[in-house]
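Quick review question:
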């Protein structure tokens, strides 16, 4: 026979110049005078019951753990198998030549809430909550709620705040927050409906008004992002300052007056319907779909999760955290500009009072949808469900002649319950 090549992980040459592992010639290396294998040695029978990577008759050095385990099993990966693969069914030799088998550990139980801790479970729970809310609406408001016209009213109202909430999902997932979305929306609507802007729209088309709103929103988002990322200002404080400044600038530009849109083509384009569904709803669907793709199917989305989960680890991994943070706030500003265009189409006006408390509605919808306020986890589908739940809740309250104060109290309670539930699910997931 030709020269035998030693396998990785075994002694290539014994003390007598021969390999201790031979298939054709029985080996007596390491045997005691009485014929029993010495401590640390493995007989053919014991080795045959061992892991697939060990050959019969191979002598194993003593275990550094002092428990009779082969050194290879104590040192981690061997023969291309990870150490975890050796835990379940590896038979190890003892000093008496007997073998012991380690059984795989039993899987841990995640508890009753394990089903709802995943993304699918959360979405199912939100869907059930929406259905129950619709049942309550039918029971309390009767046929007034269960009509096609009321359904379109809910969808129109959800479209505007829904676009803002999609942008808010990115910022919160990235570990930030923005309290200025309502004020940015108001400023964009005022700037896009000034007499000068509308005159330019008459000359060059409605795209000029749309571009103005988007640029104003993006500029405000850029300021927020720079203050947070490079100015090292806490997002709560930076966006709170933008809330006051943007709302004040909107009042200065409009002189606290409501500006009427006189460009008929603008209302024709954004105030119409397509296949019986308002254009505003189609815009919301398009923004939500693009947001889902951007968050779940692109490098930008993966970096957003990484920055929100651990900014320092993301920086060490090569992600430009500051630049990415600025991009997130600019993205939210663009969403506010789109929402401003939609609200202008709904009301045919631009005013500094647009978007009041929109930051509360957006944050509530995002949190209810399952996005963690601490960052690192976000879901566009959950945000859409959250928007629909809150819009339907407002509609039910309105049909039952409940005040806006009662609606605000209900929103606050729902936010608290949602955050407490998130913390409990996170704690159970960590413990399991």
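Suggested answer, residue by residue:
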């Amino acid at each position: 026979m030709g020269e035998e090549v030693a396998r990785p992980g075994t002694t290539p040459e014994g003390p007598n110049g021969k390999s201790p592992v031979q298939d054709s010639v029985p080996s007596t290396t390491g045997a005691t005078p009485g014929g029993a294998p010495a401590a640390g040695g493995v007989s053919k029978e014991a080795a045959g019951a061992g892991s697939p990577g060990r050959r019969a008759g191979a002598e194993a050095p003593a275990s550094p753990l002092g428990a009779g385990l082969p050194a290879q099993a104590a040192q981690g990966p061997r023969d291309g198998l990870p150490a975890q693969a050796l835990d379940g069914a590896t038979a190890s030799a003892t000093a008496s030549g007997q073998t012991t088998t380690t059984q795989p550990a039993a899987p841990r139980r995640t508890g009753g809430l394990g089903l709802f801790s995943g993304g699918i479970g959360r979405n199912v729970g939100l869907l059930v909550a929406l259905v129950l809310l619709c049942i309550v609406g039918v029971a309390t408001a009767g046929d007034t709620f269960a009509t096609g016209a009321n359904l379109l009213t809910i969808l129109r109202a959800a479209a505007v705040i829904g676009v803002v909430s999609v942008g808010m999902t990115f910022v919160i997932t990235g570990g930030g927050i923005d309290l200025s979305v309502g004020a940015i929306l108001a400023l964009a609507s005022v700037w896009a409906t000034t007499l000068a802007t509308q005159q330019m729209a008459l000359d060059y088309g409605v795209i000029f008004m749309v571009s103005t709103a988007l640029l104003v929103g993006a500029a405000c988002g850029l300021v927020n992002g720079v203050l947070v990322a490079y100015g090292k200002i806490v997002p709560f404080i930076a966006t709170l300052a933008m809330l006051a400044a943007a709302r004040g600038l909107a009042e200065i530009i409009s002189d606290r007056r409501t500006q009427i849109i006189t460009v008929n083509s603008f209302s024709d384009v954004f105030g119409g319907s397509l296949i019986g569904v308002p254009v505003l709803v189609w815009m919301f669907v398009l923004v939500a779909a693009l947001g889902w793709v951007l968050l779940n199917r692109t490098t930008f989305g993966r970096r957003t999760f990484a920055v929100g989960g651990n900014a320092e680890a993301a920086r060490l991994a090569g992600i430009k955290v500051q630049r990415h943070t600025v991009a997130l706030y600019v993205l939210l500003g663009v969403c506010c500009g789109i929402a401003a265009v939609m609200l202008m189409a709904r009301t045919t006006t631009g005013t500094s009072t647009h978007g009041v408390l929109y930051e509360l509605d957006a944050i509530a919808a995002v949190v209810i949808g399952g996005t963690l306020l601490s960052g690192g986890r976000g879901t566009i589908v959950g945000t859409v469900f959250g928007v629909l739940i809150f819009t339907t809740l407002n509609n039910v309250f309105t049909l039952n002649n409940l005040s806006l104060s009662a609606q605000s109290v209900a929103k606050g309670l729902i936010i608290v319950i949602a955050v407490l539930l998130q913390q409990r699910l996170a704690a159970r997931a960590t413990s399991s």
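Why it works: The CA atoms of residues 198 and 263 lie 7 Å apart. The mean pLDDT is 78.
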